[in-house]
Specification:
Strand content: over 45%
Number of helices: 1
Helix content: under 10%
Largest sheet: 6 strands, antiparallel, barrel
Radius of gyration: 16 Å
Number of domains: 1
Number of strands: 7
Shape: globular
Length: 131
């Protein structure tokens, strides 16, 4: 089971997903920024909504590990399981399997700012004016 750093990680969404990386972002309000990223390297199995709230991380069950192992031909190094509020009447069970997981904390802006610090990180879709 993963351990998140202390913080207000209520609101979550997928900010990047390609063959080499799945990035989930979290914060208390994702309108302008997020403060935490779970970066799954080489994601092999993903079952979660694109946006959700208040996840409760837990150890994957034996059945979930078996399901992933059967689909992938073996158990991957990282398997993360959680329940989350995706807007329905009941929580949704989520499962992600990957080669590695990095937990990155720090403010990532979701909009362009001319006065941003040169080291400021921006969400992948943010482009400076003139680009």
């Amino acid at each position: 089971m993963i351990q998140l750093p202390k913080g207000s990680w209520w609101d979550w969404d997928v900010v990047a997903w390609d063959a080499g990386r799945l990035t989930l972002a979290a914060g208390y309000d994702l309108t302008y920024h997020h403060g935490l990223e779970l970066v799954f390297g080489e994601p092999e199995f993903v079952s979660c909504p694109s946006a959700f709230q208040d996840p409760v991380f837990r150890a994957p069950s034996a059945a979930e590990l078996l399901k992933v192992a059967r689909q992938l031909g073996g158990e991957p190094p990282v398997v993360v399981a959680f329940e989350a509020d995706a807007g329905g009447q009941e929580p949704v069970s989520c499962l992600i399997a990957a080669e590695r997981l990095d937990i990155v904390q720090g403010t990532v802006l979701r909009y362009w700012r001319e006065d941003a610090d040169p080291d400021q990180r921006f969400a992948p879709w943010v482009r400076s004016p003139g680009r």
